[in-house]
Amino acid sequence: MLKQVYHIPKLPPASVIENVTMLREVSRAHRYLAELKGRAGTIPNQGILIDTLSLQEAKASSEIENIVTTQDELFQASAFPEQGMSPAAKEVSLYRDALKCGFDRLHERKGLLTNNDLIAMFHILKGTDENFRSTPGTALKNESSGEIVYVPPQSYDEVVRHMNALERFINEPGDELDPLIRMAIIHHQFESIHPFSDGNGRIGRILNVLYLTQQGLLEIPILYLSRYITKNKSDYYRLLQAVREKGVWDEWIVYMVRAVGDTAIQTIDLITQVRFLMSDYKEKLRNYYSKIYSQDLLNNLFKHPYTRIEFVQNELGVTRQTAARYLDQLANGGLLVKHSAGRANYYINAPLVNLLTKGEGRT
């Protein structure tokens, strides 16, 4: 029987006390979150941001788990879901679907974020009907050495008990802690409970943005920490473990809150550039393609970095022939780049793809 060396604490942990360093990072993060929330509202159709940015998050979050694919493969998979894709691309696509499922359920439940929602996301992510772990023997190992670094709760009853307590902490705040500090605690608690047989890191990162949305710090889930964590992966795992071994919460919380602030800055820059690009396309469509211009067409070109005749046909309610004519006109004018995939054509919004794949923002 594996021996547990870390006892999951009651929430909030008694040793978590707000200090000057923490609050400085909290103030900074709140400032940029408020700016991000306002900037996102300047995009005519915010669904564009969810569709485009969630794919970037899916890719970055999956890379933390060593699931690596290319942007081109992901965009092609979105354009041609009926075609086969690599196992890595499929995993990334399922992550995006799980994230959307979580956001939809949060909206439907009027702000409640429950264990059933996490289980529903897990079902999508892993293509399974399993629930919380029920088989003992789970241990987390160092990727390089294979050494066991952490043993989470082993029994099903214990996992359920801790997850029920976490659910109450998420939905029934009974303390004065700032929501960003609570987010850091929630993430650590979830990863330490390790409730699922697989995919805990990815579900835990989805939980971060859903919690920020639940708390009203974001209108829609567009702030994703995975790129920050990928760049600072060793610190992420070191600080996770430091809480378990030494009870050092301060550094962990500062790390997570700083991740929110830094990522908000980058996302503000990306959204600003997307908005400018949309404005530029709108002006060109109105000036040079006034006969085919519509807001729905503009939205299509930014919702689908790789678009197809079928997408335009369905979203604009036009015939296939008309949709093909629209896209060919835009490709001939340089607004899109036309490619072939077998017998089908697809059209790339190259400036948007460049923004999304560069997408680092200011530091």
Structure explained in plain terms:
- This protein is mostly helical and 363 residues long.
- The chain folds into two domains: 250 residues, Fido-like domain (Fic-like fold, Orthogonal Bundle); 82 residues, Arc Repressor Mutant, subunit A.
- The protein has 15 helices and five strands.
- The strands form two sheets. It has a three-stranded antiparallel beta sheet. It has a two-stranded antiparallel sheet with strand order 1-2.
- Strand 1 and strand 2 form a beta hairpin.
- Helix 4 packs antiparallel against helix 5, helix 7 crosses helix 11 and helix 13 crosses helix 14.
- The longest helix is centred in the last third of the chain and has 40 residues.
- The radius of gyration is 22 Å and the shape is globular.
- It starts with 19 loop residues before the first helix and ends in a 5-residue tail after the last helix.
Topology:
Layout lengths: L19 H21 L6 H18 L6 H9 L7 H22 L6 H12 L13 E2 L6 E3 L5 H16 L7 H15 L6 H15 L11 H6 L1 H14 L2 H40 L6 H9 L2 E2 L1 H8 L3 H13 L4 E5 L2 E5 L1 H9 L5
Antiparallel strand pairs: 1-2, 3-5, 4-5
Helix pairs in contact: 1-11, 2-4, 2-12, 3-4, 4-5, 4-8, 6-7, 7-8, 7-11, 10-11, 11-15, 13-14
- Indicate the overall shape: globular
The mean pLDDT is: 90
Calculate Rg over CA atoms.
22 Å
Low-confidence stretches: 359-363
Name the CATH homologous superfamily of the largest domain: Fido-like domain
User: What is CATH's topology name of the largest domain?
Assistant: Fic-like fold
In CATH, the architecture of the largest domain is Orthogonal Bundle
H/I helix tally? 15
Strand order in the sheet with the most strands: 3-5-4
Which sequence of SSEs, written as H and E, runs from N to C?
HHHHHEEHHHHHHHEHHEEH
The CA-CA distance between the termini, in Å, is 47 Å
CATH class of the largest domain: Mainly Alpha
Helix content: 55-70%
Give the number of domains.
2
How many strands in all? 5
The profile of the biggest β sheet is:
3 strands, antiparallel
Specify the structural class: mainly alpha
Strand content: under 5%
